Amino acid sequence: MSGAALGLEIVFVFFLALFLLHRYGDFKKQHRLVIIATLLAWYLCFLIVFILPLDVSTTIYNRCKLAVNSSPAESNGSYVTLAPSKQKCFKPWSYIPNGIMPIFWRVVYWTSQFLTWILLPFMQSYARSGGFSITGKIKTALIENAIYYGTYLLIFGAFLIYVAVNPNFNLQWNQLQTIGIAAANTWGLFLLVLLLGYGLVEIPRSHWNGAKRGYLLMKTYFKAAKLMTEKADAEENLEDIMEEVRKVSESIKYNHPLRKCVDTILKKCPTEYQERMGRNMDDYEDFDERQNSYPSEKSLVKLHKQVIYSVQRHRRTQVQWQILLEQAFYLEDVAKNETSATRQFVHTFHSQEPENKIIQYFYTPTVEWYWECLLRPWFYRVLAVVLAMFSVIVVWSECTFFSTKPVLSLFAVFIQLAEKTYNYIYIEMACFLTIFFLSICVYSTVFRIRVFNYYYLASHHQTDAYSLLFSGMLFCRLTPPLCLNFLGLTHMDATISHKNAQPTAYTSIMGSMRVLSFIADGFYIYYPMLVVILCIATYFSLGTRCLNLLGFQQFMGDSEMTSDLIDEGKELIRREKRKRQRQEEGENRRREWKERYGNRDDSTRNRVVHTDQKESSFSETNSNRPLSKYTRSNGRTERDRIELLQDAEPLDFNADSINDDPLESDSGR
User: Fold this and answer.
1) Where is the composition biased (Basic and acidic residues) (predicted)?
2) CA dist 282 to 249, 252, 300, 386, 443, Å?
3) Measuring CA to CA, which residue among 59, 58, 73, 78 is closest to residue 499?
4) By CB neighbour count within 10 A (0-12 exposed, 13-18 middle, 19+ buried), where does 185 fall?
5) By three-state DSSP, how is residue 1 classified?
6) Does residue 285 fall inside a structural domain?
7) 379 to 109, 376, 384, 592: CA distances (angstroms)
């Protein structure tokens, strides 16, 4: 089993990152380089989280083996001689041979740092550029990142000059490397504590509120009102941009030098706008540079960038609106089925996507009713309590992990108890659950936050390239300080435990933080305590209240604006529900027509054609005979067909007052 666990986790994490990227990105429409770069960034960050527990168990085994092979008299003071139970070390099933982990961590860490500080920022500017050629996009990306890269080079150059001039500093290359790592981790830790303080409170609270059906339904109505406003704004913005594209397309004719740029812009427009602009084209007219003023290439680049952004935003709001409607309809169905006496879940609308037969076989309406109406609320409550207990343990450990005598960090206590008995399975599970919970709190906040319309991770393949790359940058900057914080909580970091024990392979790659004592003994220890203040602020929703005061509508139960938006969203959902019911009734009428008259359709058509032929031949000889004699037999059938196929949509109606079967009464006909 040597190294097998490492290989299995490498493969598993790859498919996990691929699954998440497929959920948020669009493999068919987005550029391959964007997909590959984002996948690599997510994959490396998830890989660090999953592999680090194996590094901890391997380090504990190496410490035990070193203690058994060395006596106190032979110890040179480099390592602390431990007292293993029965003086025997058991090799863990996930043991990784010596020499593999240092190389592995070095490749993973420096690749992620290259992505987050150099490649991904450049690709962000490249993806948002409106250039029409690769050279033009690269030029735009270099110009936009000149200030970004120049700032870092200026700071680094000033630091090198200061070190070279000051005789008190005699830094070597390894120490300069450690200083660079410390600077990157300090920036990441600053952002990490902010995100962690929000996630430690919001994740348990969201699961607790998930058990409240009324709460979820009201919040869905609130989201519907906000999304409708954003949807209308996106449609209006798209109309304005398409109007500009139409004017440019009409002014620049087929033989103009910039016509290729206009054709590139037209390809990015929706299909209906392309067809509309194509019908209005008069390509036979030649352009006259002396009479007309034509837009420049720079203005076309700007227009191209606006078209890409507006089309992406319009498509995203349309898809999100449909998803929100399905969610609202489902929550309303749950509220109706809670009082059902039959204990079978009944849906108002059938699913538009074909369901899996295996799921249909096991997940019957009865099972669905028991899960949705009875078991799921209690499951969410229990899960919320467990997550809240984890959050309390994390907050306590963040405030006390610097204490080594006595050990107050609960995670360090758990690991040290397992280390005495060398229970590697327990060690790996405890480490995995700890770092996994920390990662969920941080990464879920990254997926939830939204910076206006510039950064927004939208599911169902609606995330743009800029947001995907930005998320990869955040993951690569947050994961290394997150792992160092985890090692500090468990006292596996020698900087925190103040022991001369053998460090983990991950810590050895980071280097000794003693080079910068004010960071190792100050910032890394006392700054994480701010998570207490952030948790309190999140619990009382101080950030939400501040945004609400600034004019950004947030869901707050005691706000008058929230109540108005809930009523507006409820009316929007009711209107869409009536529209969906009218569509289904029309489909039912068409289906019933096919079932009742579909078999006679061909024979009726042939009989009508034969009758028409007889009429034409007979009318030549006897024009005084009425034509109705030959068509009366099919008159009622044709009238029924016309009425059943007619789908006139009224302005409004009460769905309960309409007859379910439109074919029951013939009096109206």
Assistant:
1) 582-617, 635-644
2) 10, 10, 20, 68, 53
3) 78
4) buried
5) coil
6) no
7) 39, 5, 9, 43
Q: Give the Å distances, CA to CA, from 100 to 96, 103, 487.
A: 7, 6, 20
In 128-216, beta strands by DSSP E:
none
CA distance 570 to 566: 6
Residue 56 in contact with residue 490, Cβ under 8 Å? yes
**Alpha carbons 34 and 37: distance in angstroms, whole number:** 5
65-106 tens-digit pLDDT: 887 776 554 444 434 444 444 446 788 888 888 889 999 999
Cα–Cα distance measured from residue 430 to residue 433, given in angstroms and rounded to the nearest whole number? 5
Q: What angle do CA 403, 409, 415 make, to 5 degrees?
A: 115
Note if the bond before 72 is cis, omega within 30 degrees: no
pLDDT band at 518 (very low <50, low <70, confident <90, very high): low
Rounded to 10°, the helix 173-210/531-539 angle is 20
- Number of C-alpha atoms within 13 angstroms, CB side, residue 171? 20
Which is more confidently placed, 646 or 393? 393
Do residues 492 and 52 lie in contact, with contact meaning Cβ atoms separated by under 8 Å? no
The answer to whether residue 265 is domain-embedded is no
Q: What is the pLDDT of residue 128?
A: 85
Q: What is the pLDDT of residues 151-201, one digit of tens each?
A: 878 877 777 776 667 666 666 767 777 778 888 888 889 999 999 999 999
Torsion of CA 38, 43, 46, 47, to 10 degrees: -150
Residues with Cβ within 8 Å of residue 53, at least 6 apart in sequence: 427, 428, 431, 432, 435
Answer whether residue 164 is part of any domain: yes
Integer Cα distance of 250 and 302 in angstroms = 18
Domain count, the chain: 1
Residue 119 lies in a domain: yes
The token duo for 339 is 């009082």
Does pLDDT of 119 surpass 60? yes
Pair 496, 522: CB distance under 8 Å:
no
Give residue 89's Cα distance to chain centre.
Answer: 44
Angle between helices 173-210 and 213-251 (to 10 degrees): 120
Q: Which domain holds residue 510?
A: 2-68+89-214+357-561
Q: Is the pTM above the cut of 0.90?
A: no
Q: Among all chains, which residue has been given the structure tokens 């005084």?
A: 624
